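Try it yourself: sequence plus zinc ion, in.
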Amino acid sequence: MEKFCCDNFRFRHSGDSRMGLNFRIIKLSPEFILRAKYKGNLYRYFISEGYEKLDELKTQFIFMEFCPYCGKELKKVYQSDAFVNETNHGF
Ligand SMILES: [Zn+2]
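Structure, out:
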C-alpha cells in the first residue's frame, strides 16, 4: 500500500472524480514530455470541483504544490504511478 502524506489527502484523492473538491494526481503524457523535452517532475497535483472526463474539464481546477492539510510538498511524497488518478488527458 502506498503511503499518503496524511489521511485527509488520502480521502480527497481516493474519492470519485465527480465528487466535489477532490484531489487528483496526473502524470504528464509521454507526448507532452517528448515535445517539451521535459526533465522535471512528471506529476501534477490539483484540486477540482468534480468532473466526468478530464479532457472535457469545464469546471475550475487549481494546481497545488503543497498539501492543504499537512503542508508537505507534494512532489516529495507522490512520485509513483501508483498514485496517478488519470491517464486520459492530452497534456
Ligand atoms: Zn497531507
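One thing you can check immediately is this: Residues 5-6, 9, 67, 69-70, 72 surround zinc ion (CB under 6 Å).
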